[in-house]
Amino acid sequence: MNVEKAISDLIKIEGGYVNNPKDRGGETNFGITVATAREHGYKGAMRDLPLETAKAIYLKTYWTGPRFNLVAEQSSSIAEELFDTGVNCGVGFSKPLLQRVLNLLNLEQKLFKDLTVDGVYGPKTLEALKITLNKRGRDGELVILRMLNSLQGARYIDLAEKRPSQEQFIFGWFRNRVVMP
Predict the structure, then answer these.
(1) CA geometry: angle at 50 spanning 48 and 53, to 5°?
(2) pLDDT(1) > 70
(3) Which pTM value belongs to this model?
């Protein structure tokens, strides 16, 4: 998998500088929020955020930090979905999703014991993914992707129902983010 291409594709969806007062993320550039930029030491105006800085933040915070790069060794599609969800919904939301899905696909613990849903992608989670993909093949990967997308979509619906100001974003979230394979 080419993570640089995944980041570039994501930036195309995110676009450039935006400062929508209804966006809970606040001021953004290339999809990077001002808070995230500041956490990474960027002190300048968000309008001037260098593209290379944004790419470095994506790589560190949304790819290698949550260890989605390790998932990519088994399935680039699943890793890219987790990456995209982490960018748009927050890594704290996206990290436990794969463990939740794998627990539902383990045939009542016949394939492996239920994982602790903690968002830590250690040996047990990676082995469970390997077992699931080996057992279920291409259909297993497809179902995992659909389940991950469904959880992401449910998150967007929940956000818009709780905060009507977010309704203006829901069409775009589903058009660009909840893409069933």
Answers:
(1) 135
(2) no
(3) 0.91
